[in-house]
Specification:
It contains 19 helices and 21 strands. It is an alpha/beta fold. The chain folds into four domains: about 10-125, Tetrapyrrole methylase, N-terminal domain (Cobalt-precorrin-4 Transmethylase, domain 1); about 130-255, Methyltransferase, Cobalt-precorrin-4 Transmethylase, Domain 2 (2-Layer Sandwich); about 260-290 and about 425-515, Rossmann fold (3-Layer(aba) Sandwich); about 295-425, Rossmann fold. The longest helix has 16 residues, at about 500-515. It is elongated and about 90 Å long. The protein starts with 10 loop residues before the first strand and ends with a helix.
Length: about 525
C-alpha cells in the first residue's frame, strides 16, 4: 500500500539585515538567509548580503521608498503567505530591525492570521549604528538618560498625527527622528514651538555605517538649512540632544584615511571577498567588478598526469592561490589527498599562496621573501643547496604566465615541468559592461590591479579610450610586475605596494591618501 508523503510546510523568517554595513548582520540572520529557498529584500539592504543566500535561491526585490511606487505592503504580505503555502522557506530581509518602524509586525500579524509559521530575527537598529559610526552616544551619564524614537512618516489610514508634540518635544533628552529629512524645517520649528531650545544641538546622518555616510551638525534652529545646503537626502536620521556635542571626541569612522573612497576591485569574484573586507575595514567602499574569470585549462590531461605522479618530483611550486586550489581539486577528483605528496617539498610565492596551501593541510617548506617567480626559484635552489640528488620541479600555474621561474631553475640544472592548472578568461558581458561604466563614467576613485592579467583584461574591456579613462582615477598596483605591465600599456601608476600582497596594497593606498590630505 502506498503511503502519502506529507507536504512540506513552509516557514517565513523575518530577518533584520542591519543598518547598512553588511558585516553588521547577526550570525543567526546570516544562517537563516543561507537556508532560504526564496529571499524577499528591501530597498535599504546592502547587496553584499544577498551573497549569503544559496546559489539556487530565488531573489526578489520588494523594496519601498517614500514617494516612489514599488511593491505595496499588502502584495508583500500575500507573497509571503503564497510562498510558505508552496512549502518554501522564505527569508524576508529587512533593513535595520524588522520591528522598529520596519512594518515587520504587520507582516507577522498577517502570517499569524493565515496560520503560517514564522520566526523573527532582530537586527542592529539604524539609530544604534548611525550614532556609533557618527561619533555620538544616544545615552550618556552626564548628558542623556532618556531617548525617544519618532517616525516622521505615519500611516495614511490615520485621521491625523498620533504624535503629541507638546509632550514629545521635551519628554526625553535625546530624540531620534526617522524619515524626517524631507520635512526637517517644519519638524524643527514644531520642536521649538513646543519648548525645545533653538540652540539645542542637532545632527543629520545619511547612509549610516556605509563609506558614503555623511554627517551634518548644527542646532535645532540651523540644522534644516545646513542639511539642505549639504544636499543631504534619504535615508537619513535626525538626532536632537546634548549628546550631539560628543561627536568631536567620539568620531572615528569618517576619520579613516580611505573613508568615502570607492575602490574598484577587478578581481575574479572568488578572490574579491577578502580584499573587499580589508578595504571596508579601512573605511573605503569596495566595488567588485571582475575583469577576469578563473576557469580550468582547455586540456586538463597534463594537470591530471602531473597530479597522479606528483611524488616523482623533488619540489612542487605554486605562484598563486588559484594554482593551489586547482591542483588540490584535481587531487581530490582522483580520490587522493595530501599524503600523495610523500616527501615532495612545497614552495609558495607569498603569504596568500601559503595560506591557500595551509587550507589544504599543507605547510609550505619555503615562502619566497619577494613575491615574484625569480624569488621562488632562488628559494628552491637555496634549500636544495649542494645536494647530489637531481632537482625535479613541478610548477602548477596559469596557462599564460611569465617564464622567469622555470628559466632560472633550468639554468641551474633543474628539470622543470610546467602544467597549466587554470586559465584566465575575459569577464562575462554583464560584468564587462559594469566595469566599463564604473571607470568611464567616474563611478570609482581608485582602480586596483593585483596581476598583469587584470591590467590587460581591463584595457581590453575599456577599448581604445582605456588609458584616458584610467588617467582620471588613482591607479594602484600590487607589485613591480603588475606596475610594469601597466606602465608598458601607457597607464600612470600612482601607488605600488611595498609588500606585494593585498594587505600591502591597501596599506600603500592608505599612506597615499594620508599624504594627499596633508
Amino acid at each position: 500500500m502506498l503511503r502519502r508523503v506529507p507536504k512540506k510546510r513552509g516557514k517565513v523568517y523575518l530577518l533584520g539585515g542591519g543598518p547598512g554595513d553588511p558585516e553588521l548582520i547577526t550570525v543567526r540572520a546570516k544562517r537563516r538567509l543561507a537556508e532560504a529557498d526564496l529571499v524577499l529584500s528591501d530597498a535599504l539592504i546592502h547587496p553584499d548580503l544577498l551573497a549569503f543566500a544559496r546559489p539556487d535561491a530565488k531573489l526578489e526585490y520588494v523594496g519601498k521608498r517614500a514617494g516612489r511606487v514599488y511593491e505595496r505592503q499588502n502584495s508583500i504580505n500575500d507573497r509571503l503567505v503564497q510562498a510558505a503555502r508552496e512549502g518554501l522557506t522564505v527569508a524576508r530581509l529587512k533593513g535595520g530591525d524588522p520591528y522598529l518602524f520596519g512594518r515587520g509586525s504587520e507582516e507577522a500579524e498577517h502570517l499569524s492570521a493565515e496560520g503560517i509559521e514564522f520566526e523573527v530575527v532582530p537586527g542592529v537598529p539604524s539609530p544604534l549604528a548611525a550614532t556609533a559610526y557618527a561619533g555620538v552616544s544616544l545615552s550618556h551619564r552626564d548628558l542623556a538618560s532618556s531617548v525617544a524614537y519618532i517616525t516622521a512618516t505615519e500611516s495614511d489610514d490615520k485621521p491625523g498625527s498620533a504624535h503629541d508634540w507638546s509632550k514629545l518635544a521635551t519628554a526625553t533628552q535625546t530624540l531620534v527622528i526617522f524619515m524626517g529629512v524631507r520635512k526637517l524645517a517644519a519638524l524643527m520649528q514644531t520642536l521649538i514651538h513646543n519648548g525645545r531650545a533653538a540652540s539645542c544641538p542637532a545632527m543629520v546622518i545619511q547612509s549610516a555605517s556605509l563609506p558614503s555616510q555623511r554627517t551634518v551638525v548644527g542646532t535645532v534652529e540651523t540644522i534644516a538649512q545646513l542639511a539642505n545646503d549639504a544636499g543631504i537626502g534619504m535615508p537619513a536620521l535626525t538626532i536632537v540632544g546634548d549628546v550631539v556635542s560628543l561627536r568631536e571626541r567620539l568620531r572615528w569612522y569618517d576619520l579613516q584615511p580611505l573613508f568615502g573612497k570607492r575602490v574598484l576591485v577587478p578581481r575574479a569574484s572568488q578572490q574579491a571577498a577578502s580584499m573587499a573586507q580589508l578595504l571596508r575595514d579601512a573605511g573605503a567602499e569596495p566595488v567588485v567588478a571582475p575583469a577576469i574569470r578563473i576557469a580550468p585549462p582547455e586540456d586538463t590531461t597534463a594537470l591530471s598526469v602531473a597530479v597522479q605522479h606528483v611524488d616523482d618530483y623533488t619540489w612542487l611550486a605554486f605562484t598563486s592561490a588559484n594554482g593551489v586550489k586547482a591542483f588540490f581539486h584535481e587531487l581530490r577528483e582522483q580520490g587522493g589527498d595530501g599524503r600523495r605528496l610523500g616527501n615532495v617539498m612545497v614552495a609558495a610565492i607569498g603569504p596568500a599562496t601559503a595560506a591557500a596551501l595551509r587550507e589544504q593541510g599543507i605547510a609550505p617548506d619555503v615562502i619566497a621573501q619577494e613575491f615574484v617567480g625569480e624569488a621562488v626559484a632562488d628559494a628552491i635552489l637555496a634549500s636544495h643547496g649542494k645536494s647530489k640528488e637531481p632537482l625535479r620541479v613541478l610548477l602548477a600555474r596559469a596557462a599564460v604566465a611569465r617564464d622567469a621561474l622555470p628559466n632560472r631553475l633550468r639554468a641551474a640544472g633543474a628539470g622543470v615541468d610546467v602544467v597549466a592548472a587554470y586559465r584566465t578568461l575575459p569577464p562575462l558581458p554583464e560584468d564587462a559592461a559594469r566595469l566599463r561604466s564604473l571607470i568611464v563614467e567616474g563611478g570609482v576613485d581608485v582602480v586596483t590591479f593585483t596581476s598583469s592579467s587584470t591590467v590587460e583584461q581591463t584595457l581590453a574591456v575599456l577599448g581604445e579610450d582605456g588609458v584616458a579613462a584610467l588617467a582620471k582615477v588613482a591607479v594602484a598596483c600590487i607589485g613591480p610586475i603588475t606596475r610594469d605591465t601597466a606602465l608598458g600599456r601607457g597607464i600612470r601608476v600612482d601607488v605600488m605596494a611595498d609588500s606585494y600582497t593585498t594587505e600591502g596594497l591597501i596599506a600603500a593606498l592608505t599612506q597615499h591618501f594620508i599624504k594627499e590630505r596633508t
